[in-house]
Amino acid sequence: MTTSNNALTLPEEGQFRRDVAAINQFQKIVHSTLVSGQDYGTIPGTNKPTLLKPGAEKIAKLLGLADSYEILDRQEDWTKGFFRYIIKCRLTSVSHGVVISEGMGECNSMESKYRWRWINAKDLPANLDATKLVSQERHSKSGGHWTVFRLENDDIYSQVNTILKMAKKRALVDAALSAGRLSEVFTQDVEDMAENGKIIDADQTTGEIKDTPSPDTSEHFCKIHNVKFFRAGNMKGYAHPYDEDGMKKWCNEPTTKTEPSEQAVPPQ
């Protein structure tokens, strides 16, 4: 009788328990480090918070990982206004150079947030019959309400770079969830939207918009980039990552009452 060398080898029970404990401990660290409304947001109708780009970047930092990207598919039809990108994100150990996880992200101009624009009744072109347009009722926290109407986005060409970056962000979130074993804690990005620097939750059923509470700005907050500083691992001080011309840089919290300092390398 021949024994197959491809049989599944189960881990030793003690090691298995230690691995599960390590995953649980990391999930607790993530919970205590990430900031609601900045690193993740709650989308009505979902049972788990949605991980956002700043949160994914912090998870990668906590794990000592560097991100890199590859465009797997690019469709750009400038005559029809259709754009689609599929991106692969690789998270690699900074210490060992080993690929820890990969994530996929796709975005295209036919998604609702890019295909349509919503405008108030007073801004509708005079020749349009509003009764033939798709409409939504919007509500404010103060109790006011108004109607907005859906029109085809005639300025999609100015959003091509945004669509590419969204595919890149989704790939990063996917890779970070995999690397941190966090799929039971967070869901993949659903329909997170930004308005006036805030994360906004949109209920697609009622059209109601609810503001997520702004991050606490009383301590460890960067007024330059409007995000909170964080500290983890071997970091000597508080800092946060940011993008500039496609390069990831770090902004360090000053130790004195001065403006934050920006640098191109991560803090130690």
List the helices and strands and how they pair.
Elements: H1 13-33, E1 40-41, E2 50-51, H2 53-62, E3 65-77, E4 82-93, E5 99-108, H3 112-115, E6 116-120, E7 135-139, E8 145-152, H4 160-179, E9 193-195, E10 198-202, E11 209-211, E12 221-222, E13 227-228, E14 239-244, E15 247-252, E16 261-263
Antiparallel strand pairs: 1-2, 3-4, 4-5, 6-8, 7-8, 9-10, 10-11, 12-13, 14-15, 15-16
Helix pairs in contact: 2-4
Plain-language structure description:
The protein is of the alpha+beta class and 268 residues long. Helices cover 21% and strands 32% of the residues. The protein is built from four helices and 16 strands. The strands form six sheets. Strands 3-4-5 form a three-stranded antiparallel sheet. The protein has a three-stranded antiparallel sheet with strand order 6-8-7. α2 packs across α4 (160-179).
- Listing every helix as H and every strand as E from the N terminus to the C terminus, the arrangement reads HEEHEEEHEEEHEEEEEEEE
On the 0 to 100 scale, the average pLDDT is 75
How large is the radius of gyration? Answer: 22 Å
Number of strands: 16
Question: Helical proportion?
Answer: 10-25%
Largest sheet: 3 strands, antiparallel
Q: Termini separation (Å)?
A: 57 Å
User: What count of structural domains?
Assistant: 2
Class computed from helices, strands and strand pairing: alpha+beta
Strand order of the largest sheet: 3-4-5
Residues in β-strands, percent? 25-35%
Low-confidence stretches: 190-215
As an assembly, this protein is: single chain
Q: What does the overall shape look like?
A: globular
Specify the number of helices: 4
